[in-house]
Amino acid sequence: MWDQRYAADEYVYGKKPNDFLAEVSGRLAPGKVLCLAEGEGRNAVFLAGRGHAVTAVDASAVGLEKARKLAAERGVEIAVRVADLADFAIAPASWDAVVAIFCHLPPDLRRLVHRRVVDGLRPGGRFILEAYTPRQLQFKTGGPPTAELLMTLADLKEELTGLDFEIAEEIERDIHEGHCHFGRGAVARILGRKP
């Protein structure tokens, strides 16, 4: 499905970084950053432009090829890994930051990935997440069409035990990220730091 979605020349979520990531990116010290479910690379390329050593992971080889092209267009380098997050190992204490922007997974897999994220951060490392909440089903402006794949703040706080939360909120905001995320949305946003 994702290869098909990314097949067009157009960047379906745009080429600009996610607003929340851009807003909090100044809190990241230069270092190794892992971007999960990175798709066409907009967030990874943005972070590489800020001096980070970025690895973008996605199940879609088509999306990651577009990420490489965007990196070349912007004059930066990123590493890419085609992988299913169910099988992707995050080495313990190996990342200065992990980013998951609209990375919607089945609940059991999401819990597993979030446990790996917490373990994979170095002390002082940060996790940045924005995802749609179940209230997004009222807006129909992007995201999965089923509540099972959406996230609540309460669930995220439980799944990310081990992080100190600098930002942990559910809000409504206008999202203009390509044509697949366009309009008013209900989101959860996390900026967590590993002590």
Please give the structural blueprint.
Elements (H helix, E strand, L loop, with lengths): L1 H4 L13 H6 L7 E5 L5 H8 L3 E6 L2 H14 L4 E4 L12 E7 L5 H14 E12 L3 H4 L13 H7 L4 E14 L3 E13 L2
Parallel strand pairs: 1-2, 1-4, 2-3, 4-5
Antiparallel strand pairs: 5-7, 6-7
Helix pairs in contact: 3-4
Pfam families: Methyltransf_25 (PF13649)
Keywords: Methyltransferase, Transferase
Protein name: Class I SAM-dependent methyltransferase
- For the record, the CATH class is Alpha Beta
Count of extended strands:
7
Strand content: 25-35%
Mean pLDDT: 97
Summed up, the helix count is 7
H/E element order = HHEHEHEEHEHHEE
Radius of gyration: 15 Å
Amino- and carboxy-terminal Cα gap: 38 Å
Structural account:
The protein has helices at residues 2-5, 19-24, 42-49, 61-74, 107-120, 136-139, 153-159; strands spanning 32-36, 53-58, 79-82, 95-101, 121-132, 164-177, 181-193. It is α/β, with parallel strands linked by helices and 195 residues long. It has one domain (2-193): Rossmann fold, CATH 3.40.50.150. Strand 4, helix 5 (107-120) and strand 5 form a beta-alpha-beta unit. Helix 3 (42-49) runs parallel beside helix 4 (61-74). The radius of gyration is 15 Å and the shape is globular. InterPro entries: Methyltransf_25, SAM-dependent_MTases_sf.
